[in-house]
Amino acid sequence: MALVRVISSDGAAFLVSQRLAKRSGKLKTEIETFRKSSDNSEAQPEIRIVTIRAEILRLVLQWLQQHQNDPVLPANQNEQDGRGDAEMGQSQWDRDFLAPMDLGIVMELILAANHLEVKGLLDITCKLVESKITGRTVDEIRTAFKLKSDFKGNEEEQTRLENRWCVEN
Amino acid sequence: MEVMEENHDFLKDNREKQQKFMNMESVGTPNPLLLDVVLDKVFELLDLPNLLNCRLVCKLWRDNSGLKTTMKKKSVVSLRGIFLHTSTTKKNICNYFLHDDIIYTRYYFEHISYQNPLVSKVFEVMGSTISILQLHLDLNQLKIDQFRELVYERVPNLEELIIYNLSHEEIYYKQIFSDFPDHSTHPKHLNLKRLELQETRSPIIAFMTEFLGTLPNLHEITLKTDVCSDWTEQAEMWRQNSAIVKSVIDGLYNSESFRTLKVFRCGKLLTHHIQTLLEMGERGMSLESLELHVPPKETEELFTQFLSTQSKSLKELVLFEQRALPFRFKRVPGLPPSKQDFRLVLPDKMEQLELLQFSKNYKAWMVPMKPIEYARQTPKLKTLILLGKDGFGCISDYFGIPSKAICEVNSVVSHDQVSDPKLADMLHQTFPHLTKLCIRYPSPQVLTALWSSCTRIQDLSLYLRDSEDFSYMDDAMTGLDARIIGYYLSTVSKSYGHLKRLKVLGNQQKVTCSIVNLTDLRSLKIFVDHNENDERQVLSDATVEFALSKMHQLRLLELYTLHWTLGVTSCSFFSQMCCERLKKDLELTVIRFSPGDGQDHDAEALDYDNMLDE
């Protein structure tokens, strides 16, 4: 089995089958780049991911492993199909997988999924964020996601006024 | 094993890493919720109220382009249309339209004339963004020169123009739109593609001829005329002269726009109109969609000739009888239509035809047709719509000549009270590909026969609806109980497993009985009749408990209430508690309640109109 060595920002190494690694767009490109630049076709590629720490990388790999047999979804599917697939894609396993994480981890996971180009994982994590936004007040959203209001003067009030035009009628 | 970890030391200091996120900004890791790529994805999933909330979180969110696009997509927000009719105060106009860079919703003006300086200002500011304009001439008090200024100068990018009351009594007698001055020197409106004339009754031939002459790129004309007019004189005039159709057809004939016309929906046509259409067809008009009142008997041949000129383009043909003729008897199965009836004779081949419809209202009669060989004559036909009182009564007309070739029809809609089990066999023989079926009051025998012959059916719409006038008679006539339907439906879903979509119309007891046991459904749409006097909760909690919460395969549940005149109305379906429970039980299901979100809701309402057209 062809393997690839993936190293996290804090130096932990994971030996991953190339078949699995290639389900990440980023790793796939890296492996191919390595192949082209290396004379020895047997050499084991080594990829350093400087932005992702071990704990997060492990979660991504864990998710990939669980979903290794899912069909790869085309990136540009239309809205309706996309929704349907997202509904289907979120299995019980995914829910159990995400359940114990705190938002900090989820945030890191989103970044990782985005960086490694793992669409399915990005979908379910974004969905989770969506569920945290839905029904919350502005302040609750700011607190939950550690965002600071940068409105100056009456800008926030102005935006609130603009919003009124949309909800009336 | 696909993943191996080489060492585990890195997990030691977890807490410290945890801290890292808390102090994210200070250590320089970007907060993912400030990245466009993440935000775009998240915002796409949110609904309008929550999106509006998000605009208030911070500037970066407010100005995120994904948020803006999603908002436009999800709200009834429209930069495109101004509808000059319902009420709004002058102050509101200022608020809504005279700001820069705001999102406009659809707004309505009523009893505000075009002369009003505010309205003029609106057009000055917004004019070039408007692509749909709806004018109520009797309320807008528009004079012909103002009409011209408005349409040609103020809204240069207009694509769709809807005019109400073009020949309103007052307008007609004042002769305001008697003609269109200086039309020959007038610049042409190149963007206008769709023209709809509503409640137009009297002839405005000169105006129409000249107006249409300035619209070279017109694609679609829809004429809706109010036959049951309270203005008796005009209604009679319409019946005798079919004035508006004459205006439009003559107008088209003399202009260039007939060349680009793709969709033509109109009312009654007289012999010379059919003759004119034939000539236009021969000169190069190729329609994709044609909808008209049944032509006069003596034009049978002419109409077939006209259709031959359209055989390479026509995709949809809808013929209908405007209202039920009181003197006609329901046709007995097997009997040919009477000698007075117009009978549709399709030409040898209609290459593109996909939809064929023979009435628009289940209370009206269906237009008879000479039986055809679908597979040869209409190789692309997919949908056959047989609404109307005759329904399967004149079954031999529509089921045509059986042929060995395979016919593509996969959808049949009928509103007849179906009781003859032979129907199932005929359906199967003529349309072996049938996957969608829509029937009204099928008898148990028909259902049984259907299950054994048409096994491909996946999508079934059953109308269990009590009609207003005969509610007490319907059950008596068909001897049908919703329980029986429920029983048969559950049998079919167990033994065939093909049934994936079901649409039920009916009162709540009937609906509940018929869907219980259908645990394999993927999609379910329920319309419930609703009267103003009824309690606000239209389906009982028992429906949830006994039927809905057990449908674990369900992915789309749509619940709508219908009022017999108001259409889709807003109403609560279950008790609040029960609703919450349902959402929990059906975690994977998208649930839509009426009135639903704007656009979808419109679509549903339209769909329903098309089906019943009451």
Automatic annotation (TrEMBL), chain A:
SMART domains: Skp1 (SM00512). Residues 119-166 form the SKP1 component dimerisation domain. It comes from Orchesella dallaii. Residues 4-69 form the SKP1 component POZ domain. It holds the Pfam family Skp1_POZ. InterPro entries: SKP1 (IPR016897), SKP1-like (IPR001232), SKP1-like_dim_sf (IPR036296), SKP1/BTB/POZ_sf (IPR011333), Skp1_comp_dimer (IPR016072), Skp1_comp_POZ (IPR016073). The keyword Endoplasmic reticulum does not apply. Keywords: Ubl conjugation pathway. Belongs to the SKP1 family. Pathway: Protein modification; protein ubiquitination. This is S-phase kinase-associated protein 1. The keyword Hydrolase does not apply. It comes from the Eukaryota.
TrEMBL record, chain B:
InterPro entries: F-box-like_dom_sf (IPR036047), F-box_dom (IPR001810), LRR_dom_sf (IPR032675). It holds the Pfam family F-box. It comes from the Eukaryota. Residues 36-63 form the F-box domain. SUPFAM superfamilies: F-box domain, RNI-like. This is F-box domain-containing protein. It comes from Orchesella dallaii.
